[in-house]
Amino acid sequence: MSVVGIAILIFLGGLLNLVRLAYPAALIILLLAGLLFFTIYCSENAKNWLTAWRASSLSNGGQLKYLHGDILPIAMLIIVVGYYAITLLPVIAFNIHDDYYTYLPRPFRMLQSGTLSGNPYEVLGTDSLGAHAFLQGFVLLGFPVEYLQGLEAVFSFALVGLLLIAIGRKFNLHWSYTIFAVLGFIVINPQSVNVSPIYLGSAFILGIILASFKLLEQMGKSDSGETPILSIGILGLLLAGFLGLKNTFLIFAFAYFSLFFIGLLLISEDKRKIVKICALVTLSAFVALLPWLALYTSNIVSAVLIALQPSTETTVNTFTSLSGNISGLFSMAALYYGNSFLSYGIIVLMLMLIGAYSIINTYGNRVAPSKRGYYLVAAASCAASIITYYFYGAIIPAYAAVRYSCPVLIATLPFAWLVAAMAVPNSWRSQKLLGMPAIKIAILLAMPILVSALFWSTFVKRIEMAYYYHMAIQLPYDNKAIKYNRYAMSSDTSEFVRGIQYKTRPGEKILVWIGFPMHLDFSRNEIYSIMSSSLLNPWLDMPFSGNVNDMVQYLKGQGIRYVIWDARGDDLENTYRRMLSGSNLGNRRVAERGLYFREMLASMMNESNILYNAKGIVLFGLQEIND
Description:
The chain is mainly α. It folds into 2 domains: 2-7 and 65-89 and 150-469, no CATH class; 484-621. Helix content is 66%, strand content 4%. It contains 23 helices and 5 strands. A 5-stranded mixed β-sheet has the order 2-1-3-5-4, covered by helices on one side. A hairpin with a 2-residue loop joins β4 (610-614) and β5 (617-621). α7 packs parallel to α16 (398-421), α11 packs antiparallel against α12 and α15 runs antiparallel to α16. It is globular and about 80 Å long. The N and C termini lie far apart (58 Å).
């Protein structure tokens, strides 16, 4: 129910952004409406919940089962979530590059201008569609930016744990397996380096899995050939919400649904019905995602037109700069953000084993027909996770492939353990080991214990970082970096940045390249805020081989009147120099264009009328520069 509600919010958020009405008032109305529906839902179901609990408590050992099966895993989750809420919030450090340049300005822009679209120098459309930024807007309604990480590190983290507990209950498993699944999810290193969605992506995967179960159940009950429209709509809505969070989720979504429906075709007698349901799920997902896609229609059209131009100047962009090394995934090297490739390789191996076991149970006659659907979903999710992991290893650096795969692995591995635990007979669930092969018990328990052992040291480090440094990101920040974060988030910096902006004319368009654009007043001016990787946007036709006059003409053609630029940029230029000497093609392209554009801005500044220059931040106009 909770994930479905978030998916509905994402759909409505797309509509609001499309019509430029995603202001605080609109979000408050959505929030109040959600609370109203939640209250109605609870009041209508409270009697049924109480009756079910009383009935179970009167059965043999029912009350004890509820005590262990629900309270113990929930208690463990509450302790960890509570610890993170107390120690992490408010955070004292964000990622200086990813967060300050890219992620943090987005919800501020939306709340002040009513939409996330309108900035061609944004990477929205290539990295995500903006759904996560929309959800972050709800946090900023009542809290300062230091609490923004609460959406991921607290709320979404808790949601994943509750969904795993719900799946354990659905499978009627012994409480110990649910605890192991929750523990595994808690300790796995998420490779968190910014405020982009990790646990929320995991929550959507588990929501899609539960919705798949519901669809299969409705199909089993539908003897008259009726199409389960509601279950189809929910599944499509969840898929759209999932894809709206991050474009890197596309591979898992495509692989999972392809394998899921292929599996259904193989085991179903009414193949026509399966094709119809597959088409309806796809259609419903497309309709729910359409508002977000429509936000970037102009960018997409521009990218296509540029790609069709017979020019070599525009062939290097976000997509053509991809480069991978899949062999790196098989190494035992340590990862910069903790653990090693071996740790995640073992997770993938476990998914292979459980996936193979699930395939056997799906297409064999070893399990009851009512459970075949569970194994089909498990087989599809395990296989999709493996495909995602190695696909990204083939197109991007191995360390990035691990990071992009973490939301998938965090969701599917504990779920796979719960599916494997269904192999345990009822005698084990009632804590009687007689008749249970020791080897099967050992395998079931060894998997989560091994994963906990592999990730325990980094889990302890994350706990310590939360306690001592109030940090959720896994970067080795020193006192200098933390001091910079405090400066960047301070009210003095906000007043300083806005003071520069207020020296421009209201309504005029400003090109901005500074380290903390979130402090700008997006309602006063149309802001084009640059982030380094956005210079590779496939819809930008910037004259990177031209001279300064060509660049001035290009910027004027975009209607830009002013430029606010951090002319110091020593740290950024040093970063670019390191990227140039690296092996990653994408990073080298970013560095080349970043350094070139900084040279162009320096030349423009020297030829223009400087309106402000202090602390390295320069404001100058473009109109004074002759083309």
